[in-house]
Write a structure and sequence with these properties.
Length: 441
């Protein structure tokens, strides 16, 4: 069998450690689908909509730390997949979109659903390329993955003309360029250590530039070595253990008043792996710029993302994990910061602590099971609603109706026996009544 460009692209994905891709099959890249099937090393997940496929690829990139891959047809398919491009650009997620394109003789002739990804998605993409020459495919594929993962990660688009996929690739070899991963210099680490040692109320703000398990383990080690409270950016709750004594909360939508007051008292902010965007800075208000200004150390692998929104006292162009390893290698002059840690604990308890009042004294799920649901599956009801509190009592953590139980009946029972649910359940009862009347009429 002739070794084609389609097989070369499939081998390029494998060489870049891609083991899963998402997409909606299309006629414009059938040879590539055949090549992926024949290789059997990549799990190709078929989706019903390119938007879902691109968002799934973004999620895959977050979980693996590698670039996500989405396959889409030209025109409507690519524009549907742009949902994921936007998320990848906003959240700095490496994403490679492979787009089936019209054959080369019909390019730039307004052929059916022809698209220029560079012009269409220029504001979202880090880079876009149209593969026109078989000899350049190894280089362009390597460059696509390097661009997606270097500096500020983000989305790239690779257009695949339909006829090119069937061209011979004999003699061509896969290339890997690798991503640029800067590391901090000795001088920067010494300055950061000195600033931490002098700080009374520091906060380490952690973004999502690095998401590996090894990074998270080193993050815990650094926080404990320096007695350094950790705040995570929006959607980054898994970056640091939420039950750790040095966990100081998270930024994002509707940050709790207790945490806002806490952050205002910090005398040093170390932003690690974050561009300090809207959700990571309390709407561009944190670190405080008005007097007295909060000193800022920003660590990010892209120099262009540092100092763009806030005055930065120490700018370090480095990957987040490289910075952690360097800081762990130097002696720490850690202060106990007892009062600061007490403030951290108080804010954490005020926001996330189990309520001391209003907690049902009895086992609500068991009571409902025994008294109200003899014919609707007690075991399932208890399994789906039972949740044990830290104080040993149990309460319904989420209202989940059992099979065979109508929404209206379940809402009536919850309104009668679950504290604080009457208003919400009343809405459910009213809606279900209207739905029933409409169905009858």
């Amino acid at each position: 069998m002739t070794y084609r460009i389609a097989e070369l692209i499939a081998d390029s994905l494998i060489a870049h450690d891609i083991d899963r891709a998402f997409g909606v099959p299309g006629e414009s890249f059938l040879p590539l689908l055949d090549a992926l099937h024949d290789r059997g090393q990549i799990d190709l997940v078929t989706c019903r909509h390119e938007g879902s496929a691109s968002l799934a690829a973004v999620a895959d990139a977050k979980l693996t730390g590698r670039a996500g891959v989405v396959l889409a047809s030209r025109g409507p398919g690519a524009f549907n997949a742009a949902l994921g491009l936007h998320v990848a650009e906003q959240e700095a997620i490496p994403l490679v979109m492979l787009v089936g394109q019209v054959d080369r003789p019909n390019l730039d002739r307004d052929a059916v659903q022809e698209i220029d990804c560079g012009r269409s998605f220029g504001g979202l993409l880090k880079w876009a390329v149209r593969l026109n020459s078989a000899a350049l495919v190894p280089e362009m594929m390597a460059r696509a993955f390097a661009a997606a993962q270097s500096g500020t990660p983000g989305p790239v688009a690779v257009e695949l003309p339909e006829d090119l996929l069937a061209d011979s690739a004999q003699g061509l070899l896969v290339k890997i360029h690798g991503a640029v991963l800067p590391e901090p210099g000795t001088g920067a680490i010494e300055k950061a250590s000195a600033m931490l040692a002098a700080s009374q109320r520091p906060i380490l703000l952690v973004g999502g530039e690095c998401r590996t398990m090894a990074f998270r383990q080193d993050l815990i080690a650094l926080s404990e070595k320096w007695n350094l409270p950790v705040v995570v950016a929006a959607k980054m709750q898994d970056q640091f253990r939420n039950d750790h004594a040095l966990w100081a909360g998270q930024l994002g939508f509707f940050t709790s008043p207790a945490h806002v007051k806490l952050f205002e008292r910090a005398d040093l902010i170390v932003a690690l792996g974050s561009r300090l965007g809207d959700l990571s800075s309390l709407g561009f208000a944190f670190p405080r710029q008005a007097a007295p200004r909060q000193p800022l150390v920003q660590v990010y692998p892209d120099a262009g993302a540092i100092g763009t929104r806030f005055q930065t006292d120490l700018a370090i162009v480095s990957g987040a994990h490289a910075f952690l390893r360097a800081m762990l290698a130097v002696p720490a002059v850690a202060q106990e910061r007892i009062s600061w840690r007490q403030e951290i604990a108080a804010a954490r308890s005020a926001t996330h602590g189990w309520p001391r009042s209003g907690v049902p004294a009895t086992d609500v799920s068991a009571m409902l099971s025994q008294r109200l649901l003899p014919s609707f599956g007690r075991t399932e009801w208890s399994r789906r609603t039972r949740a044990t509190s830290p104080h040993g009592s149990t309460a319904s953590s989420a209202f989940s109706r059992p099979r065979g139980c109508s929404v209206r009946h379940a809402a009536q029972w919850a309104a009668a026996f679950l504290p604080g649910s009457r208003q919400a359940c009343g809405i459910l009862i009213a809606r279900s009544s209207r739905s029933a009347e409409t169905a009858v009429s």
